[in-house]
Write a structure and sequence with these properties.
single chain; binds cytidine-5'-diphosphate; alpha/beta; globular; 8 strands; five-stranded parallel sheet
Length: about 230
């Protein structure tokens, strides 16, 4: 069967990466977490005290950044210049700052090029905000996840607490809402549903229910193409 590109976009904390990993594992595809790439760039910028407004420093920074992934047994790890930063990039500080770096055109152009390279041979699941609109406008399968904001915040709150980090529900709700607001309103590649993307309200559905639904649609699409 021909390999395809599966693009999953949507609001913050709607379970895009959970589903993307399950699909990639099931189809034996690559998984690319594009949000992790924006988070890794943000980590590098913060460590080196580079403001999102300083374009000459941003340009120099990008020439020094290499991001790789290791996806195995359904688990994904993000590497920034060879360092495993998977945990660091999920911190509160990065979550608060990432959207202001994700607005910068130069950063987006740099990461979109890398994302397209990852998808050259298809057989890939990528999740993010602009995958179906900008990165792979011709992706064979496009999904757009939305959810009640309180359910998303609660989901992310549980994830953070389970990973051993202290936080409050109110703090997480504030972060998720602010990021959605900023991601939807930015000038370059704002978060929006591609015309040919299938919108799924994930609010009151279980992980398995959503997964079975996505796989059914993906399999229909793959059969059509063969
Ligand atoms: O996991 P969550 O949905 O909370 O966010 P993420 O996928 O890790 O993305 C973190 C941030 O990166 C988003 O809030 C966006 O500001 C940015 N992002 C983006 O602009 N474009 C993408 N394709 C992916 C992420």
């Amino acid at each position: 069967m021909k390999d395809i590109i599966v693009a999953i976009d949507g609001n913050a904390a709607t379970g895009k990466s959970t589903q993307s990993k399950k699909i990639a594992l099931f189809l034996n595809y690559k998984y690319i977490d594009s949000g992790a790439m924006y988070r890794a760039v943000t980590l590098y910028a913060i460590r080196n005290k580079i403001s999102p407004k300083n374009l000459s420093q941003i340009n120099l920074m990008l020439s020094n950044i290499k991001i790789n992934f290791n996806f195995s047994n359904g688990e994904n790890k993000t590497f920034l210049n060879g360092e495993d930063v998977e945990e660091l990039i999920r911190s509160k500080v990065i979550s608060k700052k990432v959207s202001s770096y994700a607005k910068v055109k130069k950063i987006r152009e740099f990461l979109v090029l890398k994302q397209r390279e990852f998808g050259l041979n298809k057989g890939i699941v990528m999740d993010g905000r602009d995958i179906g609109t900008v990165v792979f406008p011709k992706a064979e399968c496009k999904f757009f996840f939305k959810s009640d904001i309180n359910i998303s915040a609660n989901r992310r709150y549980k994830e953070i607490v389970e990973s051993g980090i202290k936080t409050s529900y109110e703090d997480v709700l504030r972060d998720v809402s602010k990021r959605d607001f900023s991601d939807m309103r930015r000038v370059h590649s704002p978060l929006k549903k591609a015309k040919d993307s299938l919108e799924i309200d994930v609010s009151n559905k279980s992980v398995d229910e959503i997964f079975q639904y996505l796989i059914r649609i993906i399999e229909i699409k793959r059969k059509e193409l063969n």
